[in-house]
Design a protein that fits this description.
By secondary structure, this protein is of the alpha+beta class. Helix content is 20%, strand content 14%. The chain has a domain of 54 residues.
Length: 93
């Protein structure tokens, strides 16, 4: 996304890795939607993903989507997820 919107550069777009990440340890990152992309551990974990350091091969990892309503990532959608929404209800600063 950052390459597409111009906030970062990628001299070698074939590898799909932004220039600022070149040389950093990359792994396959499974996102909560079940998508997979090569990224650093920090970027993956900050986005709520699951990082696999041993491979960049997303097909080998087999990312499964997590439950979209599971806001607290405890494996189910329940009253705690609803309370999270209610707690954050209102105007944004």
């Amino acid at each position: 996304d950052e390459i597409a919107d111009g906030t970062t550069a990628d001299v070698n777009p074939a590898d799909g890795v932004p220039d600022e990440c070149q040389g950093l340890e990359l792994g396959a990152c499974c996102t909560v939607r079940g998508d997979c992309l090569p990224t650093t551990e920090a970027h993956c974990l900050n986005a709520g993903g699951t990082w696999h350091e041993d491979t960049l091969d997303c097909d080998a990892v087999g990312c499964d989507p997590q439950c979209l309503g599971d806001l607290d990532l405890d494996g189910d959608v329940d009253v705690m997820d609803l309370l999270t929404i209610i707690d954050r209800w209102g105007t944004c600063p």
